[in-house]
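Archive transcription. Copying these from loose printouts into the bound notebook so they stop getting lost. Printout 1 of 2:
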Amino acid sequence: MKTYKLSKEYTYVIYGAAFLGVQILTGLRNSGYNVNAFLDKRASELKEVEGVKVYEPQSYKSDNKENVVVIVAVTTTFEHPKIATYLRTLGYHKIICKMDENAGLVADNLKKIAYAYDKILESDIDENVELREWMASDELYYFKDYALITEDCNYIVAYIPVELCYTGKDDKGKDADTLILYSQIDMIDLYKFFDGHLDSSEGTINFLKKYFYENTDKYCSFNRTEQGFHDFVVSNYEFYSKMSYLANMGMSFFIDNPISVYWNDKGYFNIDDISKVNFIIAKGLRYIPAKMEKEDYMKWKNQEKLQACEKCIVEMNCLPAYAPILHPNFMGYPTKRDTIGNTRLSRIMKYLYRKGYELKGKKIIDIGAYYSFFAQAFQRQGADVTTIEVFESSYEAGKKINDLLRCSQINALQGDIMTTEIKDKFDVTNLLTVFYPYFQEGRGKNFIKKVSDFTNYMLIWESGGNAQEEIQFILENSDFIRYEKIGETYGTGLLREMGVFYKK
């Protein structure tokens, strides 16, 4: 890849014509650099700023874009890598932007670009630093272990995602190897209620009573009485209050006092201190400080499969992940959805739990699986999972990620669902943000008929931007007879709805 140094020989263009853009313009002008244009999506409104014409990004024409340096002037630095990659698709090679060091996008070449950006803001341009031209996928090519916190001779303290937290075995083997998000929903909701995030206590308390009375043997100090239940709630409120105080002081308490976990060869961690995990989930956090033996950490890292996975992603020029990749080296990987708070997976698990529907032993197909985030979760819970992905790069990367995360039992197919022969019948079909393009293109009827034909019972669905139209269309053009709403969602710029269609 070509390198360059900033100089007055180049033409400078500023992306963003607001306050920061004007600040950069002033600094460049005062230092004798030629600024030819602003790029801004509001060009039709702004037209000209400080005597410099404003263009739509795709409308600005240059005789030689190799001679143009574009400086990103957007205050939200998390947006900079995405904007830079977009500018690269428009033909620009010399792009200066800021990298957020907490985002995992801090390879050495990118650090130099960030340094150049800071010097521009200071009106002190450094013409000696050698910069690499921007690649369309620069932000994808840097992998680092972001889970590791501390280590000694025998043990590791690291952040583990809640999706890999499973209950351990009690003396009777009850609730063994059950996803926390699935088995502890009542307790998590109680903590959310304490925090004021649930408007009504009635449903929470009723479900919690059921949880309490079914699990009294775990709480030997309580009797199966109303007073026992009252004491149970009070003790949990006191615990939650104490944990909340400590959390307000930062994460140091949880790092210094991590939960203990041990690796399960099925591809997740078994834990003992469920209460801390419930608290962290209730607070909307996804990563939990945990202590484990080094050997267990290395099993999670799966170094044997890691290199091949990273190589595949680089060579296939893969897109950002649609949902998280649950591995230490991918915590900084650009991800579009399910990175914070009440994720789609947690909402699905809560819904299924409330319905008393277990995934173990069920046949599931995930359409538009991308890198198989949901499929992997279903497999860990004992389901027989098939995926289908239309994009070859996502399919190939997904297979490598499945191997890395010890989910190789997933039956992965590549192709368009409309042209791929599906011989099996499935208890559950997972169809998140996949139907609406077919619906908008006028191909929705054949699509949903095919999905209906191979789905025996349940369709988990997420809409595009017109949820009610999709719901009505699916009910009118398939064998699904009723619909239940899980909740409203937001993703990739659209307000959406997620719910479940049933055949009976």
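Printout 2 of 2:
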Amino acid sequence: MATKPKKKTIRSIPQERTPMPEQEPLVRAKNFEEVALGYRVEEALVEAERCLQCADEPCVRGCPVGIDIPGFIRKITEKHYHGAYDIITDTNLLPSVCGRVCPQENQCEGVCTVGQPDTRLEPVAIGRLERFIGDTAIREGWANVPYIEPNGLRVGIVGAGPAGLACAADMAKAGCEVVVYEAFHQPGGVLKYGIPDFRLPNDKVDAEIRKVEALGVRFECNTLVGRLFTIEQMRAEMGFDAVFIGTGAGYPSFMGIPGESLNGVLSANELLTRCNLLRARDFPNFDTPLQPGNHVAVIGAGNTAMDALRVSLRLGAESVHCIYRRSKTEAPARAEEIHHAEQEGVDFNWLTSPIEILADAQGGVRGLRCVRMELGEPDASGRRKPVPVPGSEFEFECDMVVFAIGTNANPILGQTCKLALDKRGYIATDDSLATSIVGVWAGGDIVTGAATVIRAMGAGRQAARAMKAWLGLRDSDAVYEGDAADTLFGIHRAEHGPARVRLA
């Protein structure tokens, strides 16, 4: 008779979080190879044993796409790695990507029972375990392609970033013909142009996009919707029964201080796109114009700023400075990213705000004039408001200034179609992510402003659920559920569109 497994407790699990091997800081600061090297099998097994398999599953609620986290970790402890992959990909086809770039500390790991203050332990390394499974799947060539019965419906997706990819995958699984239009020459969105290889290797992104393609999703790149055709034309003339917009928010912000038009001033988006997607870092093999600075100042302290700082080091800068008007405590970047930047030699100037970019005789940058700041009362964001310290102005030398202070919505769609926008210029939606145009949904950064990869993916899945309901797509299980007053054959009476039910 088989014995029942002994229940885990806080005291019985491994107390220390399993460390992940990394490149040495001074070595990695001179290359674009991945910093964190990932778990080996032995390390993944030890870390998986730290999961308590909580009955209430707070980590699942903390995941924007609802991955069955205890389920896939349990499969790891059983050494059933393909089974773990099956569980993850039921809701997320990009585990290798998300395991690397999701801010797990603020999501699944942030609510992990093991990591609560009263335990004095670090949470289970959920992201590292997800990456382990995703990388194993790529290495072994695993791809879960379910049987898909075509339903005759066509869905158009605008933008091949995280939101668009998630929505495309769910709609393809539902049997729709899905076409994704991407303005750049490669799909991936911010995963390709915004995140450097040392954090997210392009080959991992490409491998997981191929799994989306395996579902029948077709990508049309070099296609700028709003110029070649409009959203209205997609619905009225191009035969799309529903459309999802996931174009992101990549329009850079600047401060409006003197000197922003000088040569040597650029946005972080421009720097990263040239380096990552256009491969300026591989000059002269790729003939992409980019003149890296010798002394670089990056304004901002979010994850994008950390990427710009660390890219500048790898491009050969002698000194790289982070300029941020608040303290380290208020910095929006992940603690891990700040730590890595410090290790690699970035000079952090906390409580410092630029007031002017100084010009040399040739119209380039020669320096930055700044003012010291102190923290006052909390502002609308909940963080203490930075206030200039009188008489604290100073200058330091630099020849390149990079702005990484946030992004805005690209205005092209708002200018070329009748989509309602909010006061910030982002697409306005209801709670289901439906826009003002019938049959059109939107999600991700184009709705919320800049957020995380996984939240964009969560929005793509949320929109897909609403689109399927509107199109009348339901699995057979829903049809045979008991009807309430507001349902008919398992379908909510408020849902409209042709009733198409897959009877599998």
